[in-house]
Amino acid sequence: MKFDIKKNSLLFISIAILLFFSFFLYFFTLESYDYIESFSIHIRQLFGRFYLWLGLSCVLLLILLAFSSWGKHRLGKASDKPQFSRLAWISMLYSAGMGAGILLRAIQEPVFMMHNPPIKNNISTKTIALEYTFYQWGFTAWAFYAVFAIAMGYYLFVKSKKVLSSSAFSSIEDLINSKRSKNIIFGSIDILAILTTVFGLVAAIGLGTTQIEGGLNHLFNENFGLKGTILILLIISLLAFTSVFRGVNKGIKIISTWNIYITIGLLIFVFLQNDVLSIITQFCTSLYHYIIDFIPLSLAYGEYNPGEAFLTDWTYYYWAFWLAWAPFTGIFIARISKGRTIREVIIGVLLVPSMGTFFWFTTFGQSAFEIIESFEVYQGQFDNVFSSIFVFFENYPFQGFINTLIILLLISFLVTSLDSAIFVLSMFTDNGKQEPSKKHRILWSIILTVFSIAIILLGNAKADINVLIAMQKLLIITSLPFSLLMVLMIILFFRDYKKNLHTSYSK
C-alpha cells in the first residue's frame, strides 16, 4: 500500500494533524480536557447565537428553493435517473445522518425535558418536552445536511467537479492569481472539511460505543469499563471496514436497509403495546406547536428563550454536532442523490426523516411518560442517557430479546455511520474520486479507530465527566470554522446557480 506524498498531500497533512491531536489526548488527557473546556466557554459566548441564526436561515432557504422553479431541476443532467430506489435512498441517508442517536436519546431526552421544561407557559410539560425534542432533532439538523448535499451535488454532477469540499468554492478561483496561494486556500478548505468530519464522526462513535457498553453493563449487571468500550469500538471498526470495502451497493446499502426495517419493527412494537390514540394525539399536538413556534424557538426569542445554560448544554451542542456531520453526510447524500430533482432531495432529506424522527420520539416519549405515571415515586430510572432505553424495555414483554436486538441495532447504526464517513473521507483524499481506492479506505479505517479511542480516553479524563460532556465541549469548538465557511458556500451556490441556470440545465 504505497502513497505518493506529493499527490496525496491532503491525506498526509490531515492525518498528521489528527495524529498530533491524538498524541495530546493519549498522553496529556486531563490537560487537553481542561483546555477544551476553557476554550469552549469563549466560543459559546461569542458565537452561540450565530449557530441559531445559521440553522434558521438554512431551513428557510431550503423551503424557498423547494417551492421555487429551481426545485424542478435535477442534480445532474436532465436525462440522469436515480441510481437507488426511494426506500434504499431514504434508508441510506437516514442511517448515515442520524442513526444510533435516536436510540441514545429516545427515552432520556423527552423525560428530561418533561421534568425540566425549557420554557413555562400554559402548554403541558409533556407537549413542551416533545416540542423541544422535535426542535433539536428536526428540520434544522437535516437542513444543515441538505444545504451541503444540494450545493455539493450541483458542483459534482452539474459542473462536473471533484468530490472535494473546495469544489463548492471553485467559482472564486479566478480571483486568486498565485497558484501557490490557490493551492493553500483550497487545500485548507478541504482539510477543514476532513477534520470537521472526523471530529463529528468520532463523537458519535464515542457516544454509541459507550451506550452499548452501558447496555451490556445493565443486562449482565457487570461493569465492563473502559477496556470493554474500546473492545466494542474495535469490533465496530472491523465491521465498518468490511462494509466500506465492499462498496456502496454491496455493503452500505444492505446494512442501511436492514437498520430501517429493524427500527420500524421496534417502533411498531412499542406503538402497539401502548395507548395508540394518546400517542397519535400527542404527536399531532406537539408537531403543531413545533411548527407554529419554529421561528421563535430557532432564535430563542422572548418567552422561548430557555436561558444560556440550557442553550449551552443542549441547542448549541446539537447545532455543532449536526454541523460537524454536514460535510460527510452532505456529500454522502449528494453521492446517492444523483438524478433526483432538488425539490425531491429537499423533501426527502428535510421532511421525511424529520417526520419519522418525530413519531419515534413521540412513541417512546409518551410511553415513558405513562410508565413514570405508574410509579409511586420517580427515582431517576430514565436519567442515564446510556442505559435509559434498556431500563425502558424492562416494562415490556420479551425484554431480553429486545434489549439484545437494540445492542445489535446500535452496532449496525454505528457501522453505517462509520463506513459512510470512511467512504467520503476516502473520496476527499483520493483526488476527489467518486469510487475511491481501497487503500484509502483501509487507511481511514485505521485512523478513525485510533482517533475514536483517543476521544473515549478524553471522556474518561475526570471522574465527574463522560464522553457526552467531553464531546459537547469539543464539537462547539471544532464546528465553528466550518459553520463560518458554510455561510460563504451558501452565498456562492445561489450566485453560481442563478448565473449558470440556463446553460447548466440544457434540455
UniProtKB/TrEMBL annotation:
Main localisation: membrane
Cell location: Cell membrane
Alphabetized InterPro entries for the sequence: BCCT_transptr
Keyword list, A-Z: Cell membrane, Membrane, Transmembrane, Transmembrane helix, Transport
Protein origin, superkingdom: Bacteria
Repeat as UniProt keyword: no
GO MF, one annotated term: transmembrane transporter activity
Membrane topology: Multi-pass membrane protein
Family from the record: Belongs to the BCCT transporter (TC 2.A.15) family.
Protein name: Glycine/betaine ABC transporter
Organism: Aquimarina muelleri
